[in-house]
Backbone:
């Protein structure tokens, strides 16, 4: 049995949602982060499966290929604030990067042309100089963090270890010039090799047609791509790429080579928590928001006497309410001052995107519809539908209040974190002005202010100082900046980071952030 399948078979209550439903939904989020049209990753995965069948892979290998090809670039949009510092609009950067062989001189020229794009002249010069001086080491480290985060997501979804390995090789190359550097040739997972060539083929075929796409792919044979797979794509490519533009989510779910039964309710809850944690990595300052909001929303819903089904629905919606952030450039989220009218419109689309991502099957659609209301307000001034009070269910009112409270207690580039008392005052002002539901606000405040982490409990075996360092690390700060903020030496910070990684059983910041979120340690970062 693969992943969560075995647990699901023994379950008494089926959620009506399969793992394949979740990963195909996530592929829509990946499309947004890559700057590609909807269903791009679904079309690429369909092409991967056709290549796999041409190779004569058995069902187990096809099952691995299915999951890897749907999720292979799911980690690309994380830490978008860092991508924005380097290249401006990180989504536009990724959308154009597929046209370039990202190794050696062509890659450096491409990155230098984009360095600091959309920012001031001083930052453009600074980023260009850093790229030249370091040979792009920052970019390589970002790639490694993206892969690590995607691997943790795969584990959280209960996917097979071979799937995790394939996803963690999203930036690996046949010639060994990718990430990780030690991988080349057939040491790179076959599922990863197929997924890489299929994704590029889908983009190029759509942009320039089948014949020219094959020529461009063949030009990367032996460098980016496995020559044997290039030969497979070059053999009757019209048949291989037929009707890709007609592929829909239901078609890809039907392509699953090994049918997995629906998850039980608890397994679905765990999977949605893993997705929420992962998508909070869109920018460093969002870390822990999904789980934190879900805990508050669930407690408030219980306090208000909502029935068990509605409590569960509120918690699930809270866990994934900001998945749509993948569709908004990190540059927008990281803006330190007021947004322009254009950027405000782009930002507000994230609540629509979550509705679009979780549109099927029906149990996920209910979650997506509620999640999309988290910025609606009773007076109709919210977004994206501007729903008035009569159309906002109690579940939506609880979610909106919980999201607002938790967000206020986290740092954002345009404002510092508020303490709980200040957040409560702000929430009550919104209730008094008719924007938020007063009962929901009081339930949220009561729940949130009684959920303090006890320093004595030392979650994860961490000391109080290590928790402080961990919070700063998860907020995206370098060791030198952490040292300055905490009044300790940079070397001491480095030692703390080593101890933190050892205690949490992780090896990088992305995994440490996800672990900290699960332990409830990211309040007021």
Residues:
């Amino acid at each position: 049995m693969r992943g969560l399948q075995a647990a699901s078979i023994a379950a008494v209550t089926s959620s009506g949602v399969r793992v394949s439903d979740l990963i195909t939904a996530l592929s829509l989020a990946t499309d947004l982060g890559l700057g590609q049209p909807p269903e791009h990753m679904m079309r690429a995965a369909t092409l991967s499966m056709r290549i796999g069948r041409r190779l004569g892979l058995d069902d187990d290998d096809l099952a691995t290929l299915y999951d890897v090809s749907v999720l292979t670039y799911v980690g690309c949009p994380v830490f978008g604030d860092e991508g924005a510092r380097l290249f401006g609009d990180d989504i536009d950067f990724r959308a154009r990067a597929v046209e370039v062989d990202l190794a050696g001189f062509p890659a450096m020229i491409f990155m230098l042309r984009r360095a600091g794009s959309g920012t001031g002249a001083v930052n453009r010069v600074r980023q260009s100089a850093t790229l030249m001086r370091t040979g792009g080491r920052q970019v390589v480290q970002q790639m490694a963090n993206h892969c690590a985060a995607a691997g943790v997501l795969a584990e959280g979804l209960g996917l097979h270890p071979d799937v995790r390995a394939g996803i963690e090789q999203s930036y690996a190359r046949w010639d060994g010039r990718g990430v990780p550097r030690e991988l080349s040739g057939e040491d790179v997972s076959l599922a990863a090799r197929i997924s890489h060539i299929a994704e590029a083929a889908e983009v190029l075929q759509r942009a320039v047609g089948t014949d020219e796409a094959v020529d461009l792919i063949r030009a990367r044979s032996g460098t980016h791509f496995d020559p044997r797979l290039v030969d497979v794509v070059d053999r009757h490519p019209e048949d291989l790429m037929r009707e890709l533009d007609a592929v829909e989510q239901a078609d890809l779910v039907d392509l699953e080579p090994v049918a997995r039964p629906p998850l039980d309710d608890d397994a679905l809850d765990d999977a949605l928590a893993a997705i929420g944690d992962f998508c909070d990595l869109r920018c460093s300052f969002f870390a822990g928001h999904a789980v934190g909001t879900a805990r508050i929303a669930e407690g408030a819903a219980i306090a208000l006497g909502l029935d068990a089904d509605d409590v569960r629905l509120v918690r699930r919606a809270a866990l994934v309410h900001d998945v749509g952030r993948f569709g908004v450039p990190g540059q927008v989220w990281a803006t330190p001052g007021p947004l322009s009218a254009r950027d405000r419109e782009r930002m507000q689309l994230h609540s629509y995107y979550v509705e679009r991502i979780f549109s099927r099957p029906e149990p996920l659609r209910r979650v997506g519809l509620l999640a999309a209301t988290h910025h609606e307000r009773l007076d109709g001034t919210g977004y994206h539908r501007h729903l008035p009070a009569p159309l906002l269910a109690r579940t939506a009112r609880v979610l909106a209040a919980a999201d607002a409270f938790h967000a206020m207690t986290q740092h954002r580039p345009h404002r510092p974190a508020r303490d709980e008392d200040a957040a409560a005052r702000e929430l009550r002002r919104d209730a008094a002005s008719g924007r938020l539901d007063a009962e929901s606000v009081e339930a949220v405040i009561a729940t949130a202010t009684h959920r303090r982490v006890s320093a004595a409990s030392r979650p994860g075996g961490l000391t109080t100082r290590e928790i402080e360092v961990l919070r700063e690390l998860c907020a995206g700060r370098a060791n030198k900046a952490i040292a300055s903020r905490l009044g300790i030496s940079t070397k001491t910070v480095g030692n703390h980071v080593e101890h933190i990684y050892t205690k949490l059983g992780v090896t990088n910041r992305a995994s440490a952030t996800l672990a900290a979120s699960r332990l409830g340690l990211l309040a007021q970062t």
